[in-house]
TrEMBL record:
<protein>
    <recommendedName>
        <fullName>Sorting nexin-4</fullName>
    </recommendedName>
</protein>
<keyword id="KW-0446">Lipid-binding</keyword>
<keyword id="KW-0813">Transport</keyword>
<keyword id="KW-0472">Membrane</keyword>
<dbReference type="GO" id="GO:0000422">
    <property type="term" value="P:autophagy of mitochondrion"/>
</dbReference>
<dbReference type="InterPro" id="IPR027267">
    <property type="entry name" value="AH/BAR_dom_sf"/>
</dbReference>
<keyword id="KW-0963">Cytoplasm</keyword>
<dbReference type="Pfam" id="PF00787">
    <property type="entry name" value="PX"/>
</dbReference>
<comment type="similarity">
    <text>Belongs to the sorting nexin family.</text>
</comment>
<dbReference type="InterPro" id="IPR036871">
    <property type="entry name" value="PX_dom_sf"/>
</dbReference>
<feature type="domain" description="PX">
    <location>
        <begin position="1"/>
        <end position="122"/>
    </location>
</feature>
<dbReference type="InterPro" id="IPR001683">
    <property type="entry name" value="PX_dom"/>
</dbReference>
<dbReference type="GO" id="GO:0061709">
    <property type="term" value="P:reticulophagy"/>
</dbReference>
<dbReference type="GO" id="GO:0000407">
    <property type="term" value="C:phagophore assembly site"/>
</dbReference>
<dbReference type="GO" id="GO:0015031">
    <property type="term" value="P:protein transport"/>
</dbReference>
<dbReference type="GO" id="GO:0034727">
    <property type="term" value="P:piecemeal microautophagy of the nucleus"/>
</dbReference>
<dbReference type="InterPro" id="IPR015404">
    <property type="entry name" value="Vps5_C"/>
</dbReference>
Length: 389
C-alpha cells in the first residue's frame, strides 16, 4: 500500500469552522479496498479519530504516533501558516505510511473507511483481530509484576535506552540549530559592511558588491538547510520519541494483564485455603474449637448446617475464580505473544525510518555544501580579476 498526502487546502476560511483539509491518495492491491487507487480529503480531527480508533480496537498494537501527540514548539507561526501546514502534512503522511506497512493495522476496517469513504463515520467499528479486555476492572493487590519474563524486561530496557538516545540527539541538534540560526544576523551585518566598503573603494566597488551578494546567498542556503532538517530530520526524531511512549504504554498494559492474572491466582489460593479449613473443621480439636461449638449450641445454631452452607459458598467462589484465572491467564498469554510480534514490527519500522531519516539528512548536508561551493566558486574569478593600481 502506497499513501501520499498533497494539496493542503484551507476550508471555510474566515469562519469559526476554518480548518485545513489534505488530499490523501492511496494505491493498493488489497482486495478489501473498492479500487486500486482512492482519493479522499481529510482534516486533522479525522486523523485523530483514526488514531484513537486504532488504539481502542488494537490494544496490543504499537500504533504509530500522530503529529500533535508529540511536542511541536519547533513549528513556526500559526497553525494555518504555510510552514506549519507543510510540516504537518509531511508528518501526517509518515503516520499513514507507518500504519499502512503494519501487517495488522493495514487490514483494519477503520483505516479502509478513512482512506476510501466519501463521508467518514465517526462510529468506531469493532476490530475483528482485537484482543478483548477483561469484563471488570480489577483492584490489583500488587503494584508490580511478581513473576517477570526476561524477554519483556529486555524489550523495556531497549526502548528506554533508545528513547534516551533520541532525547540526547534532539538536544544536541537543537544546539546546532541555535548556533546556525545565530549566523543569520551576522551574515546580514557582514553583507552590510562589505557594501559600505564598496562605497569607499569605488574602484573595486563592483567585485565587492558581488562578494556581498555571495554572502547573502550563503545566508539564504543556510536558512533553507535549517528549515529542511527541521521539517525532516528533527520532526522524525520527535515522532519516534512519541512512538517510544506508545510502545511503553503497550508494555504497561501487558504488565497490567499479568498483574490481573496474578491477583486472581492469589484470590483463588485464598479461597482454596478457606475451603480446606471448612472441610477439616470437624476433624480439628482444641480449646478454641470447643468454645466456639459451645457458644453456637447456646445460641441455637446448627454448627454442621452452618459449616455446609459456608462450604457451598466457598466452593461456588472457587469454581468462579478457576474460570476467571483460566480466562485471565489465557488473555495475558495471548496479549504477551501479540506484544512480541508488535515489537518486531516496531523494530522493522524503526530501521526503515531511521535509514530514510539519516539518508535525507546526508542529502541535505551535501546539497548545502554543494550550494556553498557553487556560490564561492563563482566569486573567485571576479576577485582574481581585481588588478592593483
Amino acid at each position: 500500500m502506497q499513501i501520499s498526502i498533497t494539496q493542503p487546502h484551507k476550508e471555510y476560511e474566515g469562519t469559526t469552522a476554518q480548518h485545513i483539509s489534505y488530499l490523501i491518495t492511496t494505491q493498493t492491491e488489497l482486495k478489501t479496498f473498492p479500487k486500486s487507487e482512492c482519493q479522499v480529503r481529510r482534516r486533522f480531527q479525522e486523523f485523530v479519530w483514526l488514531y484513537n480508533t486504532l488504539v481502542d480496537e488494537y490494544p496490543a498494537s504499537m500504533v504509530p504516533p500522530l503529529p500533535g501527540k508529540h511536542r511541536m514548539e519547533y513549528f513556526k507561526g500559526d497553525r494555518f501558516g504555510e510552514e506549519f501546514v507543510e510540516k504537518r502534512k509531511d508528518s501526517l503522511e509518515r503516520f499513514l505510511q507507518r500504519v499502512a506497512r503494519h501487517p495488522t493495522l493495514q487490514k483494519s476496517v477503520c483505516l479502509r473507511n478513512f482512506l476510501t469513504a466519501e463521508k467518514l463515520s465517526t462510529t468506531a467499528p469493532k476490530g475483528e483481530g482485537a484482543l478483548e479486555n477483561l469484563g471488570e476492572v480489577l483492584i490489583n493487590a500488587f503494584t508490580k509484576v511478581q513473576k517477570h519474563d526476561e524477554r519483556f524486561l529486555e524489550i523495556k530496557e531497549s526502548v528506554e535506552k533508545f528513547s534516551e538516545n533520541l532525547h540526547t540527539i534532539e538536544r544536541l541538534h537543537q544546539k546546532i540549530f541555535k548556533k546556525q540560526m545565530e549566523l543569520e544576523p551576522d551574515y546580514a551585518a557582514l553583507e552590510t559592511e562589505i557594501k559600505a566598503l564598496s562605497q569607499l573603494e569605488t574602484r573595486i566597488a563592483e567585485p565587492l558588491l558581488k562578494f556581498a551578494s555571495a554572502i547573502e546567498k550563503q545566508a539564504e542556503v543556510t536558512k533553507e538547510m535549517i528549515g529542511s532538517e527541521e521539517a525532516g530530520f528533527l520532526s522524525q526524531i520527535h515522532e519516534y520519541i512519541s512512538y517510544c511512549t506508545n510502545v511503553k504504554g503497550v508494555m504497561k498494559l501487558r504488565e497490567q494483564k499479568q498483574i490481573d492474572f496474578e491477583e486472581l491466582s492469589v484470590l483463588l489460593d485464598q479461597q482454596k485455603s478457606e475451603r480446606e479449613k471448612l472441610v477439616n473443621h470437624g476433624r480439628t480439636s482444641g480449646i478454641s474449637s470447643f468454645l466456639k461449638g459451645k457458644y453456637d449450641e447456646i445460641k441455637g445454631v446448627d454448627q454442621e448446617k452452618s459449616r455446609q452452607q459456608k462450604l457451598e459458598k466457598v466452593e461456588a467462589k472457587v469454581k468462579e475464580l478457576e474460570r476467571e484465572v483460566d480466562s485471565s491467564g489465557d488473555l495475558a498469554s495471548r496479549f504477551s505473544e501479540e506484544v512480541l510480534k508488535e515489537f518486531a514490527i516496531f523494530q522493522t519500522s524503526k530501521t526503515i525510518d531511521l535509514k530514510d531519516s539519516f539518508h535525507n539528512y546526508c542529502n541535505s548536508q551535501m546539497d548545502y555544501y554543494k550550494s556553498g561551493i557553487s556560490i564561492w566558486e563563482e566569486i573567485i574569478p571576479i576577485l582574481e580579476g581585481i588588478q592593483p593600481q
